[in-house]
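Predict the 3D structure for this chain.
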Amino acid sequence: MDDIMYLKSGTDIRGTAFSTDGRPIDLTAERLQAITWAYANHLQQKISKFEDVKVAIGYDPRISSRNIKMVIENVLLEMGFQVFDCGLSSTPSMFMSIINHNMDAAIEITASHLPMEMNGLKFFTHEGGFSGDDVKAILTRASTKQWISSGFKSNSQKLNNMETYCEGLREMIKKGVNAEDYEHPLKNLKIVVDPSNGVGEFYITDVLEPLGADTSGSVAVSPDGRFPTHQPNPENQAAMSSVSEATVKANADLGIIFDTDCDRSACVGKDGEPINRNKLVALASYIALKDCPNGIIVTDSVTSDGLTEFIEQSLGGIHRRFKRGYKNVIDEAKRLTFNEGNTAPLAIETSGHAAFKDNFYLDDGAYLATRIVILMAALRKEGKSIEDILKNLKMPAEEKEVRIKIDEEDFAKYGNIVLEDFKKLLDDAKGIERVKMNFEGVKANFDKQKGDGWLLLRLSLHEPLLVANCESNSVGGTEKMLETLKAFLSNYKKLKLNF
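Done. Predicted structure below.
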């Protein structure tokens, strides 16, 4: 039996797809065949359909993506599935293939922002992305059987899914801006795009330029799975510096950056100031709450106090900090909306995953960018800018994250013991108040003498790590809070302190 459960990465499957330094390859052809066989069986049961199942497949520009696509395609065809090859595609467009082309399911081959030697699989049905339990079931089934080819040959069909997807984004902008020149609503606007050498070139050539936007000065445009320009990650400082510099150099009105597969994005103001993390959440919240007063904005657990104040006092919404992990945030927004009778118009993680209720709660970086472009055009008519929207957002004086390795095989059990002990410490501490209404890890507010801010200690979702996030309203405050944490953690011999 092949133990492949370690390939589970949240709601995805991920592993090394080729090796340049002698590292073992995780996603071998044999494993991919077994995983595809297991996926096909799981899918049939999940959607209660056993004949004429239609699956669309797309992929990012990684060196290994086309070969992986061919392996998956061949197994599905041999099993009697109808397979539709969408070619180079964004992850959100693959979900939309189900909506726009009546597919039963879709697969995107990508490892998002991870290094070029990595790759992976994301799965969708009409209900959205697969859950972690779905992925666990697939890998469990795959580990029990080797795929045996029947030798049956069939062909996939080409599907121009990206064309339909881009048409939808263009129509959104036309209707949203409603310019006198309806077909060219972005005329006289200059927008720089940095697709990070991923799939996002389409946003330049098939969305912005046909609508009249000037995109000259865009960088990292051509799809290149080696990612030669910078890491394909809107959270990466070098990546944000790249799009910021390009925006200022081009004298653009807006800069937009995508990760590899375009399920995440961030932007840059005309002054080159990055609008990501808390600023991006604030901007997306402004857009979501314009048509949904008193709505609930669901975010991950590490958003700032200034953001809470902005959402609740400036925008009139409700801020719900939930757990890390974009699927957790999205599922909580769905639960609040569909089960609790509330309305959560937006689920967003500080990493850039943003899912609007009016877009099927799909985390789509291009959709978010499109909503921002529409807002920018509207503000311009009023002589305003995006920067004006964010002027009331208070930013912390300092923020910091530290990651502490747990040197223990059952790291989750050990980490949870540490967290429970940390709770007890905080409940007896002076100048520190543990936050009782908290959904992940242990969070505490520190008074001005102790650090003037908050600290959250949590267990990493996928790695043997404890992660501490903190923010302070005073310079030097994060250091004070981390000193308190370090004194506590030094009692645990299985923790490797590096701060």
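The two ends are 41 Å apart (CA to CA).
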